[in-house]
Amino acid sequence: MTHQAPPALLSLALALAEANVPVLPLREGKRPFGNCRTCTRSACGDRPHMKAAGPCQCPAPCHAWGAATTDLAVLTSAAWAGAWRQAQAVAYHPGGAGLTVVDLDNAEAVEWARQNLPTTKTVATTRGEHWIYFGTMTSPNGVRPGVDIKSLMSYALWRGPGIGTMQLLPDVVRELAVKEPTAVPPTLCTVTVPVLAGGGECRHRSPVYLERGIAMAEQRINGATDTIHKTVYRTFLAVLSAHGWCSCLTETHMERLFTAAQAKGESLRNCEDAWANARTKLGM
After folding, report:
1. CA angle (13, 14, 16) in 5-degree steps
2. Which of 21, 157, 35, 22 is nearest to 89 (CA)?
3. Each residue's pLDDT tens digit, 172-212
4. For 247-261, b where at least 16 C-beta lie within 10 A, e where not — what string?
5. Is the peptide bond before 55 cis (omega within 30 degrees of 0)?
6. How would you write 221-264 as a 3-class SS string?
7. Whole-angstrom Cα distance, residue 166 to residue 118?
8. ∠72-74-78 over CA atoms, to 5°?
9. Residues 81-108: b if buried by 16+ CB within 10 A, e if exposed
10. What span, in angstroms and rounded, lies between the C-alpha atoms of 116 and 132?
């Protein structure tokens, strides 16, 4: 039997996967595909697989960057076929490939990089450039005007192999993550910060209380049908208000909330801004 040749985007994805670069399809607007039916409303549980690059434990390419994979069988599976038919671009998980992308969004940001960052492999984008380094780090957005970092827990649009020689991730880039992203003060709602019983004593000695709160927050985001931005912000605010005053709320919990928001179409930048704005609102 003669098999039809795969679409161009799938062919590109397979070539990248063979080079050990975890990839995923993007839909219109450079957004990842939403959660599959298996994972809708957090039915798949805590998704511990999200702590690393994909594939996620579900039949379709959901969970945003966590779906990125190098498994050729997964990429060509029937469950992913519909996504490839709708795909508008191919993205990859830089952190999963051991890389960090400094996303320079305009000419001013590119000029700043040329004056302040070590020369490395560069890829032209629509409005600026991607500077790519060996090594991984966190992925904060808005570290400078027009400058985002894409590495762990993030995806970047594949725009070609680039030019130049890739260098090791320098400290000057890592130090960018220490700076607070620019946040616009929200005017969405007013919250009274509760006083913890026992002068700040942790209420999460039983993990059920915190787990129930995170699960409810995920359900609230997953169930939003409109005003997604407001829902995400208010949910983050409620979670931080109830659970953010002790060390029990971890990055793993934040990842779960970000994943739910991104599955509804929110960008990583919007998630980070909403989280930062909620912390600012609460005086954290």
Report:
1. 65
2. 157
3. 998 888 744 444 444 333 333 333 333 344 555 556 777 77
4. eebeeebbebbbbbb
5. yes
6. HHCCCCCHHHHHHHHHHHHHHHHCCCCCCCHHHHHHHHHHHHHC
7. 10
8. 120
9. eebbeebebbbbbbbbbebbbbbbbeee
10. 15
Is residue 125 left, alpha or beta, with left meaning phi > 0 and alpha meaning psi from -120 to 50?
beta
Contact call for residues 134 and 168 (beta carbons, < 8 A): yes
User: How far out from the chain centre does Cα 139 lie?
Assistant: 8
Regions in the chain scoring below 70 on pLDDT: 1-6, 40-57, 179-207, 226, 246-247, 284
Let me know: does 174 contact 124? Beta carbons within 8 Å: no
Q: Is the dihedral of CA 31, 36, 41, 42 positive or negative?
A: negative
Of residues 143, 145, 114, the one with CA closest to residue 131: 114
Place of tokens 């490395």: 120
